[in-house]
Design goal:
The complex is a heterodimer. By secondary structure, chain A is α+β, with helices and mostly antiparallel strands. Chain A has helices at about 95-110, 135-150, 175-180, 205-245, and strands at about 25-30, 35-45, 45-55, 70-80, 120-130, 160-165, 170, 185-190, 195-200. Chain B has 5 domains: about 1-210, Rossmann fold, CATH 3.40.50.1010; about 230-350, Beta Barrel (OB fold (Dihydrolipoamide Acetyltransferase, E2P)), CATH 2.40.50; about 350-435, OB fold (Dihydrolipoamide Acetyltransferase, E2P) (Beta Barrel), CATH 2.40.50; about 660-830, no CATH class; about 840-950, OB fold (Dihydrolipoamide Acetyltransferase, E2P) (Beta Barrel), CATH 2.40.50. Classes of the chains: A alpha+beta, B alpha+beta. Bound molecules: zinc ion. Chain B: Belongs to the RNR ribonuclease family.
């Protein structure tokens, strides 16, 4: 039998969303007291925890020190229990190394590193449950954690994975969609200026469709930024109420 | 953007994995009814006054069919009478899962505006979604979901002001349990049969009802005729372990008790398994995907060369078949025995509606009748109808519903009538349907992509084109050709070389990728030429006007231009989009006359002579390389201009100019093939012709040997050479006959995508690479090749599917299928017109040659008509003569005369219309005279023509 029907004629996706709708996003900031900044974010069934330390003095080899800005150190990992098939995930396998690198590049574009020369900022992200769009969820969680740590950024970095099915771009893919043979693209955006921090795509897509797809990804990222903004404001309100008392 | 949605986790266990998926429930899914004022829908599908005249439901109502009703009664749902139907998402998904063809038909219904069919996404609706309860089966849950949704609808319509209109929802189900539960919850529910029978205004719908399970038992005896089919799970396990083999069943056209299944096996490329006898066939129908179990070696049999048809009056269940089966069980030489098996289960049925005729039951009041499909590979089908008397003599369509194990025939139902049998229009319709040729008029959506008239060439069109209007281009085609897709020119250059141009209609300029016009053309794949009728691949405006390279008008073309020396060696090749203005549209005969007329020295004629000279050299070179010149007799009918009845028949005659045009078309195709393959090594659409396996030549070798002629088949070249020297004194036609036989040994040439195959060789043309470029008006493959070439030379832009080798491969499969079917349809059309011709001619006595020898018959070719016919030696109405068949010859000894291949015989030819569905040309022997077998030379009614009563 043919695979799953990713988009029905009525315009509904497998899980009942319309093409441009995001999954439900829920987030909390400041979940760990001992870290400088932390956040927990759920985007549908993909759940990630981000923790930020720094900025602090360079640790380990001093040779990596940059004299005009801070070094960003990212580490990505997946919990053993994060997927349906439980397997041991050794640290530093090829996939996580690549993902760490992508996160690093994303945040180098967003964090105002020149404010902290000769120092280091650590961002640790762990996927607790994986259901598609891991990179995007990590970026979104890490953004909140960085904000929680009080490190200045040019703007929120928001990321979203989009796919292309039946000439229609689908926003915020879940795992079933990602594995259903969709050409997917991950994009991290600084929404206010519209600058792209990172764009990653390893599937085949015809050039003619690229623009539509990027367009859809940017719209989706802006949607995410609205939600994140709300979370931050809510968090600040709670905090100020607490400190006001 | 993000609406507040409650969400429920949906757990799905498959294997050992537990998969958790999100499932969003929404409150913005509308009911789609015109009468509803609550929903905020922008457009509605379901009508306010949904009236069907029914004596069960006197009020306006919407129908909600459950999955099984859709699966089994799709013919009913397709009927225009049935409107205002709600298809639930649950049903749609189940149908999609269970039957792809019905799913497609259902979708077509949904898209038809006049049908007012609405799809309700109940699985994502806040109020109609239900979770599976512990202990509940998936089927039961779905049934419940359907009931819940139907309930929601009836309450929803009641709550909104729809009640004033008395709108109600009627659930259709054939499941007793489901019906009962629905009634308990206060729903209006009927069985499909009940409901359809209540439609007083449309009694004919009842015939289209498929027979459901409980009715099957009454029509057949309780005698079990067939072994049980194994369940799918056991079949799968069996295939895995190697006890069963999987393949598609191909029933034999000549023998209804025989079929072959082509199976893929790991150890070889695949092999054919023979299935013989009704029991072993076990209710498998032609084209079904079946599981086969091999029989022990001592039960293997040889394919029977008996021609056996399930004909004559309707027999009662399986009584008389036994003696027919015995005919098969003649002992065969050990070596001739083939892998033999039996069908143990059906993996996938491939039933479609079949064309055919009704054999009305002997019992006057009976409503059950046997239906005989036109396709001999399909078994007869038992149907139930009340209008049998009006269907007599009509061609009708019937669909199979099922084949219970206690029934000799499958059960089916009437779909529609096509018209009177034997009428030309009906027969044409039948042969188009039977060969799956899309032949409906082009839809509005397709026509909307045609250029607006009056059309003219704009400056934008000229940007990437060369203006070649000044060249002396002309076209050479058969008489009466209106879709001219090629034109030629040849001129001498200043440096003494020759410039030769092949100009092909630029169809891809008009048909842009991806639009409805393109999709329609891609689906049709080819124009189908029947006698006196052409079924176009593209609308007439393009095929006969804008793309046709007629004389003295400006036309867009795609040109392939060579610089050649006088030895026909190509020095330079270039391709360009162009504008041409043909100076003359000639027929082959006209062109030939110009070339031969030495007094004529105008530009066109000089150009033609140059082309002709080069073509001869090219042909010589090609043949030297080993290209085959094979032979098949093609006949042409002279049609009466008013009645379109054939009045004369002649074999096509070939002139030098035919081969002149062909030579340059071949050259253009080869040049283009190289170019697109260089540019797109992964996704060039090419055409190949595989070398036949050596065993294919057996019959040719045996036949030649019988005349002491040796044929070499090690290579195309050897074959061509040995065919050239094969001559028998006093038998001038021998060589042609050999070539006809050789043609039968060949494989089909096929389209393929270069990235998916490594063997590009074209055996028949002896070319390492080949494609089709020269007929884009009538072949879709050429359009793709044009697009590839246009991208390669930078004249047009590319698009995604063009360079996707998997999509292209899928396209090739469709094109190959359509081409094959169009050839069959063409042959069938010729056969039908041959019959019409002989009908008007009465009985003829003609000379012919034995082409094949079978166990109980010889197949005779009449060169005068290009007609092949079978002379049977064992007819049922008289005592069989003494027949001895020798496979080695092969020869057939009838009484004291032995028939060999190529023997010259005389036969009478007449039309046997005793079976109106299979009118056939009947041949009977007049020479050699064999007592009791041959017939008298006709002036009296020949014996063989004695009509047999069919009903
Ligand atoms: Zn409503």
């Amino acid at each position: 039998m043919a695979g799953l029907e990713l988009l029905s004629d009525q315009g509904y996706r497998l899980d009942g969303r319309k093409a441009t709708e995001l999954r439900k996003v829920q987030a909390r900031m400041g979940v760990f007291a001992q870290a400088d900044g932390s956040a927990y974010l759920e985007q549908g069934n993909t759940k990630a925890l981000a923790v930020v330390y720094g900025p602090h003095e360079m640790r380990g080899s001093r040779s990596r020190t940059l004299h005009d800005r801070a070094v960003i150190n990212c580490q990505y990992s997946m919990a053993t229990f994060s997927t349906a098939e439980r397997k041991r995930r050794p640290h530093g396998d090829r996939k996580s190394t690549e993902m760490s690198l992508h996160l690093k590049q994303t945040f180098e574009a967003a964090v105002m590193t020149q404010l902290y020369p000769r120092s280091q900022i650590d961002i640790y992200v762990k996927i607790l449950q994986s259901d598609g769009g891991n990179y995007s969820v990590c970026v979104n969680a890490a953004t909140l954690a960085v904000i929680d740590a009080g490190i200045p950024m040019r703007d929120y970095v928001c990321a979203c994975t989009v796919g292309f099915v039946d000439e229609t771009p689908l926003a915020d893919l879940c795992f079933a969609e990602e594995s259903g043979g969709v050409s997917s693209l991950a994009l991290a955006l600084l929404p206010r200026g519209g600058q792209i921090a990172l764009l990653q795509m390893d599937a085949r897509l015809h050039q003619d469709h690229l623009e539509t797809l990027i367009e859809a990804a940017m719209t989706a990222c802006k949607g995410v930024s609205k939600v994140l903004d709300e979370v931050v404001r809510q968090h600040l309100q709670e905090r100020s109420v607490l400190s006001g008392e | 953007m993000l609406k507040s949605k409650t969400f429920v986790k949906k757990t799905r266990s498959g294997g050992v994995m537990k998969i958790v998926r999100e499932h969003y429930l929404r409150d913005d899914i509308w009911c789609g009814s015109e009468a509803c004022t609550e929903c905020k829908h922008e457009s509605t599908v379901l009508q306010k006054d949904a009236c069907i005249e029914s004596n069960l439901c006197s009020y306006p109502h919407y129908l909600v069919p459950d999955t099984n009703v859709v699966l089994h009664q799709i013919d009913i749902l397709e009927d225009p009478v049935i409107r205002n139907v709600i298809i639930l998402q649950t049903v749609l998904q189940e149908v999609r899962h269970r039957s792809a063809p019905i799913y497609k038909r259902l979708k077509d219904i949904i898209h038809e505006k006049e049908k007012h069919v609405y799809t309700f996404t109940n699985e994502h609706h806040k109020e109609t979604f239900i979770e599976r309860e512990p202990g509940e089966s998936a089927n039961d849950r779905n049934d419940r979901a359907i009931r819940v949704a139907a309930k929601w609808y009836s309450q929803h319509l009641k709550a909104s002001e729809a009640e004033a209109d008395g709108l109600k929802v009627v659930l259709l189900t054939n499941d007793q349990g489901n019906k009962q539960k629905a009634e308990e919850s206060g729903l209006l529910v009927y069985k499909c049969e009940e409901y359809i029978k209540s439609l007083i205004a449309n009694p004919e719908l009842v015939d289209r009802l498929a027979l459901s399970n409980d009715e099957k038992n009454e029509i057949t005896s309780s005698k079990v005729l067939f072994p049980e089919h194994l369940p799918l799970s056991r079949i799968q396990a069996g295939i895995k372990s190697g006890t069963f083999l999987q393949g598609t069943l191909r029933a034999s056209r000549d023998n209804y008790l025989e079929a072959t299944v082509f199976v893929q096996r790991e150890q070889d490329d695949g092999t054919e398994v023979l299935i013989q006898g009704l029991q072993n066939l076990n209710r498998a129908v032609h084209q079904d995907v079946v599981a086969v179990q091999l029989l022990p070696r001592n039960q293997w049999v040889a394919p029977s060369s008996v021609v056996l048809q399930d004909e004559g009056p309707a027999k009662d269940d399986g009584v008389e078949d036994e003696d027919e089966e015995n005919v098969l069980k003649t002992s065969a030489a050990e070596s001739a025995r083939k892998l033999t098996g039996k069908v143990v289960g059906i993996i996938k049925r491939n039933w479609r509606p079949f064309c055919g005729m009704l054999n009305v039951s002997h019992i006057k009041e009976s409503t059950r009748h046997l239906f005989t499909p036109a396709d001999r590979r399909i078994p007869r089908i038992r149907i139930e109808t009340r209008q049998a008397s009006s269907l007599v003599g009509q061609r009708i369509m019937v669909a199979i519903d099922g084949w219970p194990k206690d029934s000799r025939y499958p059960n089916g139902h009437f779909v529609r009538s096509l018209g009177g049998a034997g009428e030309k229009d009906t027969e044409q319709e039948v042969l188009l349907l039977e060969h799956d040729v899309p032949h409906q008029a082009f839809s509005q959506a397709v026509l909307s992509f045609l250029p607006k008239m009056p059309w003219s060439i704009t400056p934008e069109d000229m940007v990437k084109r060369e203006d070649l209007r000044s060249l002396t281009v002309c076209s050479v085609d058969p008489p009466g050709c209106t879709d001219i897709d090629d034109a030629l020119h040849c001129r001498e250059l200043e440096n003494g070389n020759l410039e030769v141009g092949v100009h092909i209609a630029d169809v891809s300029h008009f048909i842009r990728s991806g639009n409805a016009l393109d999709k329609e053309a891609a689906n049709r794949g080819t124009t189908v030429y029947l006698c006196g009728k052409r079924i176009d691949m593209v609308p007439e405006l393009l095929s006969s006007n804008l793309c046709s390279l007629r004389s003295n008008v400006d036309r867009l073309a795609f040109s392939c231009i060579w610089e050649m020396n006088h030895k026909a060696e190509i020095l330079k090749t270039r391709f360009t989009k162009s504008v041409i203005n043909s100076k003359a549209s000639l027929t082959y005969a006209e062109a030939q006359m110009r070339i031969d007329d030495t007094n004529n020295n105008d530009d066109i004629t000089v150009s033609l002579r140059g082309l002709n000279k080069l073509a001869k050299i090219l042909k010589r070179q090609r043949i030297a390389k080993g290209a085959l010149t094979l032979s098949s007799l093609e006949v042409r009918f002279h049609m009466d201009s008013e009645t379109h009845d054939p009045i004369d028949l002649q074999t096509k005659e070939l002139m030098e100019t035919n081969s002149m045009v062909e030579e340059f078309m071949l050259l253009a195709n080869i040049s283009v093939a190289q170019k697109i393959h260089d540019e797109f090594p992964e996704c060039a659409l090419l055409r190949k012709h595989p070398a036949p396996p050596p065993s294919n030549y057996d019959i040719l070798l045996k036949a030649a040997k019988s005349k002491d002629v040796e044929i070499h088949t090690d290579s195309a070249k050897a074959l061509a050479d040995s065919l050239d020297v094969a001559k028998v004194d006093g038998f001038p036609y021998f060589n042609t006959l050999l070539r006809i036989l050789a043609t039968r040994c060949m494989m089909q040439a096929v389209y393929f995508c270069s990235g998916m195959d490594s063997d590009f060789h074209h055996y028949g043309l002896a070319s390492p690479i080949y494609t089709h470029f020269t007929s884009p008006i009538r072949r879709y493959a050429d359009i793709i090749v044009h697009r590839l070439l246009a991208v390669a030379i930078g004249a047009d832009s590319t698009y995604a599917d063009l360079t996707d080798k998997h999509k292209q491969s899928a396209l090739c499969n469709n094109l190959n299928y359509r081409h094959k079917m169009s050839q069959y349809a063409q042959r069938a059309s010729v056969a039908f017109h041959t019959q019409l011709f002989f009908k008007s001619r009465g009985v003829l006595n003609e000379e012919g040659f034995v082409l094949f020898v079978r166990k109980n018959a010889i197949i005779v070719l009449i060169p005068k008509f290009g007609l092949e016919g079978t002379v049977f030696f064992d007819s049922k109405d008289k005592a069989a003569p003494n027949i001895a068949f020798d496979e080695e010859g092969p020869t057939l000894k009838v009484e004291h005369h032995t028939f060999h291949i190529f023997d010259k015989v005389k036969v009478t030819i007449s039309l046997d219309d005793s079976n109106i569905q299979h009118q056939k040309i009947r041949m009977a022997l007049t020479e050699p005279v064999i007592a009791g077998v041959s017939v008298a030379i006709p002036d009296a009614e020949p014996q063989a023509k004695k009509p047999k009563l069919d009903r």
